[in-house]
Amino acid sequence: MIDFCYPGRTGESADSFGPIITGSGNPSGKLRHVELIGEVAQGCGDSAAERGKYGIDGGVIVIPVFGALEVGLASIVLWAIRHRKRGIARLAGIVAMAGAGSAASYLYSTSRGKFAVWAEVLDGLYLGGDENVLDVGCGRGAVLLLAAHRLPEGRAVGADIWRRQDQSGNSRAAAEHNAAVEGVRDRVDLVNADARDLPFRSASFDVVVSSLTIHNIPGSDGRRQALYEAVRVLRAGGRLRIVDLPNADWYPEVLRDAGCINVTVRRLDWRTWFGVPGHHQTLVAATKAYD
Hints:
CATH topology of the largest domain: Rossmann fold
Strand order of the largest sheet: 1-4-3-2-5-6-8-7
Distance between the termini: 19 Å
Largest sheet: 8 strands, mixed
Number of helices: 7
Number of strands: 8
Order of helices and strands: HEHHEHEHEEHEHEE
Strand content: 15-25%
Number of domains: 2
Structural class: alpha/beta
CATH superfamily of the largest domain: Vaccinia Virus protein VP39
Mean pLDDT: 78
């Protein structure tokens, strides 16, 4: 059971409604408050058949870069044609086509590829439907809500600090809206929390997932702490699935040190290229050992 909290009412005790959430930064186990958005209130909503809008990973940087590249190359082609520089025009045209292909690959990975990959990862967990699942760095809810659809009797909890540079339109409100549109608002909670200091008691979750988040944490010590936190909040026998950049091959050492077994690393396929052929994302899988 996750020790969630709902804002206390006037005259009510903290035990009744206040947060009883602890984290590594609160070893005393005393009550402390966190900002919780959820459980999202039920009401009239959109059909579960509808899809939320999940933005573009790194869109704040990637979209302007691709746009500037294509505009620049198009200008070169036009200049070369005007000045009868056929070799330059041909070369710039080839580069422009390659850039367009790279942009198409990136957009596919961020809008369809990662969803297909994560659906397979989640299906491979053979969830019973009553688990508590945590998504560290949930963003607008892409992986979080894929999990929520598989938890008719469980809870899907998303933790993030919602930085705009990590994903276009990244915000708690966007994640909340997507949960409503996807028809899973009754089983989703959103928590404003840093991955390095998760505000949950140890052994709170059956499954912890994270997609393209750990590498965004500054410094190797910070990334290491986030991995330790992910393991801390897992129950014994709980499973961890992390998808990150190709340089995530050092994560297993940290996870084993944190108490995990059955740690594996697998390169994912072309669906996770994100515009760079052969630049496969990495799936790290682990299970928390029993004491």
